[in-house]
Design a protein that fits this description.
With 336 residues, the chain is α+β, with helices and mostly antiparallel strands. It contains seven helices and 15 strands. 35% of the residues lie in helices and 25% in strands. Helix 4 (195-224) runs parallel beside helix 6 (254-267).
């Protein structure tokens, strides 16, 4: 099975001349996209931008998109950087050899795809698309159901396929970390003259948490040969729950968490199964009786438990029945 992902890297240790040439190529592309004529931009970079960006907004900046056949990635044998990436520009024949620091190794047998050069806060970054083959798992031991909620953004229950109501493990990942960071930065924004700075700091902190959480989940699932099930999130952030609850819900990165899970699981040969969430929060996962949810607790006539735990358990049960009769390769479809 072929997997595609993006390797994000910072462009580091540029000489003054290389920075000037990269700035010129980048800025000239912006001018060209805004309608200026006779601006010097490498022809293939110009064509890629015109192909990708149908609508150009006046205040936006657009990355330099480089075709895969024009990208060259070489390992750097010094402490300056991890790799050198050659990017074609109109300013230098043969292109600019840019030193980059990555968050992951780029292996020799990976296929390099389209690459984008981005400028953010005065610094340059590069996103390199790579693809490679992974071994797809042919059997699983169970399903890991995840409830993406508001009180606890990620709660998981591991459920054996062979045992519909036993052999459970529940995990509550970093819920308070998200809430604590958001509360702290909301206070700082409201009581500071540099509110924009604190907003960016909050965004960086909250963005980092889903990456760490989904890595923990996918590592656990690989070790235990578990597929992952989540509720279908369509419409979750379009419901009116009151001003304060809406504010909290819209700031929790549910969609991003699901997307991260999808590609990290695919890297490990495991599927992400989406199930219909209807009644998973109202039905008891133990007995099937309809119950009630109040202040984070679920209650029916014979059971009381954490409401998010109950929801995750129901999601796991709903997906596990389907996985018993399907091959793992077919398990990525939405389950209803």
């Amino acid at each position: 099975m072929k997997v595609e992902k993006t390797v994000q890297a910072g462009i580091v240790e540029l000489t003054n001349q290389k920075r000037k040439e990269l700035e010129t190529e980048y800025q000239n592309l912006q001018r060209h996209l805004q309608g200026e004529e006779d601006v010097e931009v490498y022809s293939a970079n110009k064509q890629q931008a015109e192909r990708f960006y149908d609508t150009i907004k006046e205040d936006n900046e657009y990355p330099i998109s480089v075709r895969k056949d024009l990208i060259d990635v070489q390992e750097c044998e010094s402490d300056i950087a991890d790799y050198f990436v050659k990017v074609p520009t109109a300013q230098r024949y043969g292109g600019l050899k840019l030193p980059v620091k990555t968050h992951t190794e780029i292996k020799d047998d990976w296929e390099i795809g389209e690459t984008k050069v981005i400028r953010r806060d005065g610094n340059f970054y590069i996103n390199i698309t790579v693809s490679y083959e992974v071994e797809e798992k042919t059997s699983i031991n169970g399903i890991y159901g995840i409830d993406l909620g508001l009180r606890n953004p990620v709660v998981g229950v591991a459920l054996s396929v062979a045992e519909s109501c036993h052999n459970l493990q529940t995990v509550d990942f970093h819920a308070q970390s998200i809430q604590k960071n958001q509360s702290r930065y909301t206070y700082l924004r409201r009581n500071s003259t540099t509110g924009k700075k604190w907003k960016q700091s909050e965004s960086n902190k909250v963005e980092d948490i889903p990456h760490k959480v989904t890595t923990e989940i996918t590592d656990y699932c690989k070790e235990n040969k578990l597929a992952v099930a989540v509720g279908d999130l369509e419409g979750i952030q379009n419901k009116d729950r009151g001003k304060e609850m809406n504010r909290k819900l819209h700031r929790f990165p549910h969609y991003k968490s699901k997307q991260l899970l999808r590609y990290k699981l695919k890297e490990k040969g495991l599927p992400l199964v989406e199930v219909d969430e209807a009644y998973t929060s109202q039905t008891c996962a133990k007995c099937g009786e309809k119950g009630s949810r109040y202040r984070g607790r679920f209650r029916c006539s014979g059971t009381e438990m954490d409401a998010d735990y109950n929801g995750a358990w129901n999601i796991a049960k709903r997906a596990s029945g389907k996985l018993e009769t399907k091959s793992l390769a077919d398990a990525g479809a939405t389950v209803t």
